[in-house]
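REQUEST FORM: STRUCTURE PREDICTION
Request ID: SP-0412
Submitted by: Lab K.M.
Chain count: 1
Length (residues): 269
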Amino acid sequence: MVQTALEKQLSKIGVSQAQRSQGSRSHQHVRGLLDNKWQNDPTFPWLTDGDFLSGSYARETKIHPLDDIDVMIVMDGAGLYAIRLGKILDAEVRGDGTAGNPVAEYTYGSQGLISSKTVLESFRDALKESYPNSSIRRNGQAVNVRLDTYGLGLDIVPCFHIIPRDSTRDFYFIPQGGESHEWMTTNPKIDAEICDTLEKRHGHMFKAVIRLLKHWNEVHNASRLRAYHLETVAAYVFHNHPGRIQDYPGGMRYFSQMLGLFCKILAQT
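STATUS: Completed
RESULT:
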């Protein structure tokens, strides 16, 4: 039976409880190291509470190997202004209100804007001190910590928590990545909420179908689709599903049909 075969496949490609336990210990350890760093190093950006896990690990759609646990580390932004597209936003940059935060010295350009590149480099250097034998490098919007002993990878993402004063949805500034000094806007919590909503609506099969689709993409599609983009498309497809997922084969078949239809529409435009 196809359903049974896919259930067995899920048990092989999923993240085991032992891996989850080690991943939890590792990211909590890194959080502790960074917390100690800012409290004892007068040049390191201050941190505030509110750090959280994001990405597929947090959404429970990650498949083996567990090589990118995304950890959002919230920096203290008291006294800073949130600027987007050259305009000051009517928003608070969350922090504890204490003056003297060294991140205010991490500037570039004539306007004295905070450099995301310098922030990333400071996080990279701090983690290198604690993990001298591990691979620590900037990786896009994050600092990647590779823990070969455990076969784990952590992506540490420094961020500012932005709270609009008009009561609209809060969001985060994270580094743009590359050689850019800029910041980009995101809110991974929205992705998690959408994923959890679809999981309940589809009889707690949505996340498992995502994991199966990721495995198919890796094995049979040469990973042509980026994992995040695959999840985004799947969320759209199953949000518009007229019913609900009945079983794993049906869920994968429906996704394939909708993706094929979407590609035909694009080809005709």
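NOTES: The helical segments are 2-13, 17-40, 55-59, 116-130, 188-201, 206-220, 227-239, 248-268.
Reviewed by: T.R.
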